Amino acid sequence: MSSDEDIDLGDIERRMKGAVDALKHEFSGLRSGRASTSLLDTVTVEVYGSNMPLNQVGTVSVPEPRMLSVQVWDKANASAVEKAIRTAGLGLNPMMDGQLVRIPIPELNEERRAELARIAAKYAETARIAIRNVRKGGMDQLKRMEKDKSISEDDHKMYADEVQELTDKFVGLIDQTLDGKEKEIMQV
């Protein structure tokens, strides 16, 4: 039995990359004072008896640098869209204009910037924990394989080093991503 088939470093790397991708998606919902359609990616609207992502009930656009707009497809859902944006915890104050919901993006004050930086740090720590959990799963698998004699002690050490290298690489990537997001948030 080949040890290469038992420990899948590609799978471990894919799962760690997934944690980084999830972090980047979370960061896209944190605003930095500039209008961006991704700001509303996390907003869900209660329509037709279920919660739907905002982009499935209307078209989100950026008509001006400090303004977002949502063209709601069904007029009956316009007030639900406005309510969902207002209660999403993004600090936005949408205004109805028929089927169009206008969302001015206010200047970020220093207090709000610091709060967003703390939220970003929390998201990053969640991603680091996810990566450490993937690492732990890989290390546990290696211990079982050595115990079952399907890999040698030397192979265990070699694979453990590779898993640790992947962990260090992806935790470093998270730190870089967080650093970039914090700079973006604090930029006036």
UniProtKB/TrEMBL annotation:
Keywords: Cytoplasm, Protein biosynthesis. Pfam families: RRF. Transmembrane segments: none annotated. Residues 23-186 form the Ribosome recycling factor domain. The keyword Protein biosynthesis applies. It is found in: Cytoplasm. It comes from the Bacteria. Its main location: cytoplasm. CDD domains: RRF. Gene3D superfamilies: 3.30.1360.40, Ribosome-recycling factor (1.10.132.20). InterPro entries: Ribosome_recyc_fac, Ribosome_recyc_fac_dom, RRF_sf. Responsible for the release of ribosomes from messenger RNA at the termination of protein biosynthesis. May increase the efficiency of translation by recycling ribosomes from one round of translation to another. Belongs to the RRF family. HAMAP family: RRF (MF_00040). This is Ribosome-recycling factor. It comes from Kordiimonas pumila.
